[in-house]
DNA sequence: TTGTAAGCGTTATCAA
DNA sequence: TTGATAACGCTTACAA
């Protein structure tokens, strides 16, 4: 039922190569017939087959994205950046979600490769190191892959990251400058490097200030509100609870906030909170959240550029983007 | 450079049809050679070409999704539902984002069709009626399309919706039962039918209660926090401000909440707020948001099932899912 | 300006 | 159990 160029050719009694040319607006076919063919194609409801075309062209003009968690607003905003510049470069974008499952991530990458996408962008890889290595050796050279965030240390390749260490430092320094001395940290999953770096930044800032890092004040979260909520409850139950908390990300901060209010305390009067990411929603939190902004759109744009460069065999460099503290109303001097 | 079955055949000095069979684990090739071939394929870093396969199979085993706004958490959660059941049915999923732009939506659909996906799910279509009609006539029958939410009235086809009217009614009745009499409504974009229905539900509930609908209490939002924030400011500036507000969705409610706090008022003591969607984050809002839940995952699951049925030429029915009021802490009797 | 034919990487139908 | 060979729907030399 699907109409092909052969059908059009048959209907018009011409060769199908002419139809192909006409449809591609080649000057090598007389303007008149070209228009007739296009007209006919339209009438017959012709829809070119990208799969046939890709097969012969050996190019799909699409970039595949694998995102770790589609419900994470930080990722969603990065993706918008990717799409924007990809579309402007004439590349289509298809997205797949691994839902934080390493095996699904690997399967998704494999799938995209089988589809012969021109390049792949991993928005926060979650697969383990070993699988990752296999990814970048073996059949690797075929499809350029660039990773945004959460790059494993050993991997030297094509990656874009925020300066997480400095971000963690900025957040913590801000709290120190406000006069806080008991500053807690709710971490992300320990398997993720960005979280490790943020925590290091936190520890560095404390040490700079001559404070000792108190392990009791470092509590694991899960990068979702649930984890922040639980972690904060744990912190509030401490004999000597913190007066400020630096959270792995904004979602964690939201959960932490909830726990604080539920305990009958106020923010920032009784407790200050800092997040990370600066998702669009953060300025609408109650109170508006002080947080460390990542250059989300830029990350996406850069990643696309990197894929494109790789495709053209240009050399590319790993890239670390600066983070930036955004002070809003969730932080204040201790009571 | 990419190795194909022909390369493997050549390397092993056998015909490539045998290779093909072996790789598909056909019993029609001797176990021993089968294993040898698979071994060799692995060593040579063979990665099958989905595009070549799709061309001959005339099946891609993938469902395409077009989502209106990837940063809308409601959509993100629906998508999770889609992926879950699609993957369980052996279908891959590729996602594209129209970012609320009708032309991008249309382009995305066209693109998915050219890729010959087996079916398309529109998560909240945004294109205008006329384009939509064209979509469902002309080349329409090729690719089954089902729409989740925001279905145009004229379109009778394959769609899944929440009972928005009843949802709006439930939300408003809840406020009425608490004793509110001046209840405002912050709408979604007026171009979207789900919003129209929610508003109708709101008006019906008021009328049931013998109240007149005051146009001054109906203010447009934009289905994002920004819109809710602005609308709420407008409402608070009224000579006689409302004591309760029903918002088009949770994001709007978040913005509205912010405006209330910024004005120095409390929720729910001074003003009650109800949202719509029940995104995962809603229970972490401050205060936890009373809202109308949509069956997000079920919608996704149902949509996939519908696509699959359509593919198998079964008849399917439009489907309206019930909505459910979730009472949390953002609503209380008026002061 | 148009047509013929090869080839892209598979699957599938025949024969052998 | 294996091998030729014809599709699938397109692009693109090369001929005419």
The CATH topology of the largest domain in chain A comes to Rossmann fold
Number of helices of chain A: 12
Percentage of helical residues of chain A?
40-55%
**Structural shape of chain A:** elongated
What profile does the largest beta sheet of chain A have? 6 strands, parallel
* Total beta strands of chain A: 12
Textual characterization of the structure:
- The structure is a homodimer of 335-residue chains.
- In chain A, 43% of the residues lie in helices and 16% in strands.
- By secondary structure, the first copy, chain A, is of the alpha/beta class.
- Chain A has three domains: 5-48, 434 Repressor (Amino-terminal Domain); 59-163 and 296-322, Response regulator (Rossmann fold, 3-Layer(aba) Sandwich); 164-294, Response regulator (Rossmann fold).
- The first copy, chain A, has a six-stranded parallel β-sheet, with helices on both faces.
- In chain A, strand 6, helix 9 (193-208) and strand 7 (218-220) form a beta-alpha-beta unit.
- Chain A is elongated and about 90 Å long.
- Chain B binds a DNA duplex (16 and 16 nucleotides) through helix 2 and helix 4.
Q: What's the short version?
A:
The structure is a homodimer of 335-residue chains. Chain A has 335 residues and is of the alpha/beta class.
């Amino acid at each position: 039922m699907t109409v092909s160029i052969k059908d059009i050719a048959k209907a018009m009694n011409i060769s199908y190569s002419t139809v192909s040319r006409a449809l591609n607006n080649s000057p090598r076919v007389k303007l008149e017939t070209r228009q007739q063919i296009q007209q006919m194609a339209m009438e017959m409801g012709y829809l070119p087959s990208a799969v046939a075309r890709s097969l012969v062209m050996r190019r799909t003009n699409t970039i595949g994205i694998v995102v770790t968690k589609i419900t994470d607003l930080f990722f969603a905003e990065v993706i918008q950046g990717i799409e924007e510049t990809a579309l402007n470069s004439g590349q289509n974008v298809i997205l797949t979600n691994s839902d934080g499952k390493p095996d699904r991530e690997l399967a998704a990458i494999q799938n995209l490769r089988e589809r012969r996408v021109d390049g792949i962008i991993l928005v926060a890889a979650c697969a383990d190191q070993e699988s990752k290595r296999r990814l970048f050796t073996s059949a690797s050279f075929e499809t350029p892959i660039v990773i945004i965030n959460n790059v494993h240390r050993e991997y030297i390749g094509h990656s874009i990251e925020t300066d997480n260490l400095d971000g963690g430092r900025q957040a913590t320094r801000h709290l120190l400058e406000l006069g806080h001395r008991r500053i807690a940290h709710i971490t992300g999953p320990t398997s993720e490097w960005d979280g490790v770096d943020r925590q290091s930044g936190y520890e560095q800032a404390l040490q700079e200030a001559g404070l000792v890092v108190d392990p009791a004040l470092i509590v694991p979260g899960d990068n979702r509100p649930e984890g922040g909520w639980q972690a904060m409850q744990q912190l509030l139950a401490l004999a000597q609870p913190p007066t400020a908390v630096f959270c792995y990300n904004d979602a964690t901060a939201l959960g932490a906030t909830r726990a604080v209010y539920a305990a009958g305390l106020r923010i920032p009067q009784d407790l200050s909170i800092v997040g990370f990411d600066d998702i669009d929603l953060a300025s609408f939190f109650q109170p508006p959240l002080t947080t460390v902004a990542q250059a989300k759109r830029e990350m996406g744009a850069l990643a696309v550029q990197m894929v494109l460069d790789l495709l053209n065999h240009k050399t590319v460099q790993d890239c670390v983007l600066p983070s930036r503290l955004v002070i809003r109303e969730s932080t204040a001097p201790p009571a």
